[in-house]
Amino acid sequence: MRKVFYSVFITAVLVLPMMLVAIPVYAHIPDSPTGLTATVNPDNSITVSWSPVTCDPAIDKYKGQWGTAPTFNTETDFAVDAPTTSFTTQSGLTEGTYYFRVAARHPAVPPGHNAEWSEWTTSVSATIQGASNPLSIIAPEDITVEGSTTGGAEGIDLGTATASGGTPQYTITNDAPSFFPLGDTVVTWTVTDDNEDTASDTQTVTVVDTTPPMITVASSLTVIVGAPSSVLPLPTVSDIVDPSPTVTNDAPSFFPLGMTIVTWTATDASGNSSTATTSVAAIYNFGGFLPPLVINGVGNGLFKAGSTIPVKFQLTDYYGKPVSTATGIASINTAPVASATIRYDATAMQYIANLKTTKSAALGIYTITVALDDGTSPYISVTLK
């Protein structure tokens, strides 16, 4: 405490023989109250409270000021007798911010003297939201969007939040990420007004994946009978959200003779799938015509008109094993056409068909064709003389 010297000679008088002696009085300016707080009550009143000032003799009174200006140029005064250390305004205060400060009086200081009260406390404030117009924010509606990149979506237009009440102007923010994974993401929107008051609301952003993968396969393929399914070329697969869709097919372990339709299926992590097909034709491995149609590896054998031409050849599967079950018709395009059914010679492990030509056939070059049950028709040229 600060000590102030007052020259008041009537305050205390010591009577000594033959003289009067004036004894000065020391009074102390009390400390300002501490712990000042202001709290808004449900009835829109405000209670300001503080810690008691301890001194000897004790504080006998507190006074205060409150108003809507921090400079207290339009203040309202109040006073309470110690030991009370709080004050409550009237109820029903209107929306706004209210400021409070308090001082204490020491009873040893005569009323009206300049040192009667302590210095004012540092002011505190409390804000009342208007009961009929509180600050609020309405987040945009919940949205569902299609995945647009690996794992989720980005660049989503969330919409615009709407703020009202409080004290404009408003600052609106949200905590939305730049990337939204598949599933639900809760975005919190927050508004802050000029009184630093805040309100918030939430929006749910749901990212879904309903787009199936794209799959491209070979439309058709010819293989040797008995070829394994591994001969199939792999398809090209892509997906917007799933970088590695699962690819399956229903191909047999080994391709039998004839046409097999293979269905490919690409499935992404969200269960979307797409299909494509490959038509696989399995044919015999034709080993070429044998003598006498071919002499020293060269075709165009020479035969007499009216003779029988032996047509010989071999068929094997994918692994080089002889095929003995093929059927077919060998023919020569003479006039009239001569033809014969092929048969399998197990001893020679080859097929043979005997084509009997007519003596009336004109001399010249003709074509011998073997129409096999795999859909192929190998041929060779011969000369009739």
Question: How would you describe this protein?
Answer:
The protein has four domains: 2-128, Immunoglobulins (Immunoglobulin-like, Sandwich), CATH 2.60.40.10; 144-208, no CATH class; 214-283, Immunoglobulins (Immunoglobulin-like); 285-384, Immunoglobulin-like (Sandwich), CATH 2.60.40. It contains no helices and 34 strands. Strand 29 (328-332) and strand 30 form a beta hairpin. The strands form eleven sheets. A five-stranded mixed sheet has the order 27-34-33-29-30, with no helix packed on it. The protein has a four-stranded antiparallel sheet with strand order 8-7-10-11, with no helix packed on it. The chain is rod-shaped, with a radius of gyration of 54 Å. The chain is an all-beta fold. Helices cover 0% and strands 49% of the residues. It has strands at residues 2-6, 13-16, 19-22, 25-29, 34-40, 46-51, 61-67, 76-81, 86-88, 96-105, 124-128, 136-138, 143-146, 152-154, 162-164, 171-174, 179-181, 183-192, 198-208, 214-216, 220-224, 236-238, 246-249, 258-267, 273-283, 285-289, 301-303, 308-316, 328-332, 338-341, 343-345, 350-356, 364-372, 379-384.
